[in-house]
Structure formats: structure tokens, C-alpha cells
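Hey, I was hoping to borrow your eyes for a little while. No rush at all, and the record is pasted right below:
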Amino acid sequence: IILKLDDKRNLNIDKIFPEGNLADLINNLPDDDCRFALIEFYYREGDNIERNRILSIAWVPREATTHVRMMYASATDAFRKHVIVSAHINIARKSKINE
């Protein structure tokens, strides 16, 4: 799920990926605007037991305007308080998402 803040700082769904993967998410992040994203990923643990985790991403590219970057920065704490996930990460370059 990719989420976008509107001018009144309301969080709205921008795009949904029912069977999406990380590549779909990366390809749909704008190069010059900020977004929040949630992605669920699956992995196997121990005795081949499948587990899942939800990761939140604050996408704040350097190409976004200063006003928009500041708006997302101020909304990040509130977003993190209302979303229960395994981890939160802040990313400014798409190349860093795969690391």
C-alpha cells in the first residue's frame, strides 16, 4: 500500500498492490514527491515455518520540495504511532530500498 498526504495533512491511499512485491512498490514511488508505504513480506524460519512481517517506509526523496519533505517529516511520528509494524525505515533513494 502506498499512502499520500494531502494539503490538509490527511493520509490517503495512493495505490494498492494486492499481490505486489518490493519491485512493484519501488517502481510506483514518485521520483520527486514523498509517500508512506506499507509492505508485508513472508519468510521461512527454523523448522520451515512461514512467517510474515509488515514494514513501513517513509519515502522522502531529495528531489521533493522542501515544503513537502517537511510536511512528511512532521507527520512521520504520528504515522508510526498509528501503524503497528515490525520495523520503520526512512529512505531518500530507491537504490537504498533493496539494501
